Amino acid sequence: MLVLLAGIFVVHIATVIMLFVSTIANVWMVGTSSLGTVSAGLWLLCNNTCEQLPVSTSDEASLKAVQAFMILSIIFSVIALVMFIVQLFTLEKGKRFYMTGAIMLVCWLCVLIGVSIYTARFTGKVPLSTSSHHGYCFILAWICFCFSFIISILYLVLRKK
C-alpha cells in the first residue's frame, strides 16, 4: 500500500509540473516561415523574439477561456496534492482521499475543457507561418488530461483501503 501511495504521489507531482510547463511555455503550435521557426502558445508568439500573441476579436474569448481553464487546472491540482498530504495523516481509514479524488476530477475537467477549446479554435493557426503542427506543450496538456483522470480514479478507489 505504501508503494502504491508513493507511486501516486510521484505521478501527481509530475502532473503538476507538466501542467505548469504546458501552461507557461509558448510551444502549443509550431510552424515554419521565411524567418525560421515560429511557435505560438497561450500567451506569446515567438520567432527570434517573443511578442504578444495576435488574436482576432472572434478568437479572443476562446483564448481567454483556454488560459483560464489551464490556470484553474494548475490550482486544483496543487490543492489536491496538498489535500492528499493532509488527508494521509489526519483522516481515518475508509474516509481518506475522497475529497482529493473529487478535486482531481475537477482538475481533469478543466484540462479537458481548456485543451478541447484550443483544439477546436486554434489548431493550425500560427500567424506568419506556412505549415504548422502541434508543439510539446499541447501534447503535455493531453498527457496531463490522462494522468489527472487516472490519479483521480485511483484516489477514489484508495479511499476504501
Automatic annotation (TrEMBL):
The keyword Membrane belongs to this UniProt entry's keyword annotation: yes
Membrane topology field: Multi-pass membrane protein
One matching Pfam family: PMP22_Claudin
GO CC entries: plasma membrane
Gene3D superfamilies for the chain: 1.20.140.150
InterPro entries named in the record: PMP-22/EMP/MP20-like, PMP22/EMP/MP20/Claudin, PMP22_EMP_MP20
Transmembrane stretches, start-end: 7-29, 68-90, 97-118, 138-158
Keyword terms: Glycoprotein, Membrane, Transmembrane, Transmembrane helix
Compartment(s) of residence: Membrane
Family: Belongs to the PMP-22/EMP/MP20 family.
PANTHER family: EPITHELIAL MEMBRANE PROTEIN 1, EPITHELIAL MEMBRANE PROTEIN-RELATED
Protein's name in the database: Epithelial membrane protein 1
Native species: Stercorarius parasiticus
Gene that this polypeptide is encoded by: Emp1
